Structure formats: structure tokens, C-alpha cells
Amino acid sequence: MAHHMTTLPFRFHISGLVLAALMIGASIIPAPAQTAATPADTADQAPKRKKMVERAAAIMKALGDASAKRGQKLPALADYYAAKADLKSIDPSAPEAPRAKKLLAAMQKNEREYVRKLGTNNIDAKLDSLAGNVEGRRKFAADTRKQMSRRGLSMDIGTSDEHETVLSIKYFKMDRPTVLSLARSGKIFDRARDLGFRSVIFTDGRLTWTYDVAANSFK
């Protein structure tokens, strides 16, 4: 990509594992800056805080159900992000703070467990074995461009690097929600791994988001 583009700090993990769509880093949605709450503020916000905690608890229950039952629908990625940010925004002195802290700890435990299970050695070996699949990667880029065009999205999609192992997707409206939407579907990343791509780069021509296939994360 052009050297003048700015890379955004953007980290989360995607995989076929059951918690795949939800393993994220705290840097995606920073917690809102906290200000000291007066007793009146605390009381007035109680219903809102309760709703935040209940929503996060429901998401964690859905994650547990998905782990126990194959085919169980996962919570939406955006809902997980919002719930985690909401929990972080609850003032430590609020009555709901202890439960919010426990839920955050549960989320972080799930994320650590995901990272522990995820190893890059096997993925690296697989990608190395697919290095010669240059035509397959070129065809995927061309087919994806046609597919997006049929959906009314004019995207410049191509491959680069010595063995065409970098997939670039340029769209003038590319932003974080669009990238997350593609990540949520997971199909592009699954195909990228299966075809031997090393990186998938999303850009609007100025900002970029780079997915590292071997590390299974954005950087």
C-alpha cells in the first residue's frame, strides 16, 4: 500500500472457534472517560446501569450456551463491544460496580483462554504449504471484486507481494464498522487462510486496517 497511509491501532481475534467472533482487545472501543458522580447522579443513572449489567450478563450466558451446544447462535459482535464498554463506564462507587467487575473479569478470562488455545505454528505451516497457490489467490480477489460489485459496492480488490499473499480491499467508505461487518461474517478471513494469504488490508485510501492471517488478529 502507499506509504502515506496511516495504520490504526486495531486488535481483535477471529477464528472458527466458538468464541471467535467475540475475542477482542480493549483498544477497539476505549472506555468513556469517567468523572466523579454525585449521589444524585448515581441514583438517577441506576436504571441505566442495571440495564447495562443485565445486557452484559445475557451476552455472557449466550456465549456459555454457544460453547455447550453446537449450532447455538453467538451474540452479535457489536453487542459484545457495546456491553464491554458499558461495563467499563460504570462508576466504581455505584451499587452495580461489583457485578460489572465480575462480568468484565469473565470476559477477560474468555479472551485469555482464546489466546491460549490459539497457536500460530500450525497456521504458519499451512500458509507455507500454500505459497504456490498464486492463481487461486488471484482468482479469489477477482471473484470477490465481482461479488461486491453485484451488491452495489465498488471496491478495488487485488493481490500483491512476491507470491500474491497480500489481499488488498480498497473502498472509499471503508471505516471501522465496515471492517467489523466483514470480520463478523468471517468468510473473507476463512478463505484467506485456506488460500494461503498472509495479510488482508482494508483501506479507504488514507487509513488502513491490516489483518495478519497467521497471528489471527488485526494490527
Question: If you had to describe this structure to a student in words, what would you say it looks like?
Answer:
The longest helix has 23 residues, at 46-68. The chain folds into two domains: 20-117, no CATH class; 121-218. With 219 residues, the protein is of the alpha/beta class. It starts with 5 loop residues before the first strand and ends with a strand. Strands 1, 2, 3, 4, 5 and 6 form a six-stranded mixed sheet that branches. It has eight helices and six strands; from the N terminus they run βααααααββααβββ. The chain is elongated and about 60 Å long. Mean pLDDT is 77; it is low at 1-37.
In whole angstroms, how far apart are the ends? 15 Å
> Biggest sheet: strands, sense, closure?
6 strands, mixed
User: Number of DSSP strands?
Assistant: 6
What string gives the helices and strands in order?
EHHHHHHEEHHEEE
Whole-number count of domains: 2
Q: Tell me, what's the shape?
A: elongated
Report the β-strand fraction as a percent range: 5-15%
Number of helices, where a helix is a run of at least 4 consecutive DSSP H or I residues: 8
**Helical content class:** 40-55%
Q: Are there runs of 5+ residues with pLDDT below 50, and where?
A: 1-37
Q: Structural class of the secondary structure composition?
A: alpha/beta
Q: Overall mean pLDDT score?
A: 77
Gyration radius (Cα, Å) is 20 Å
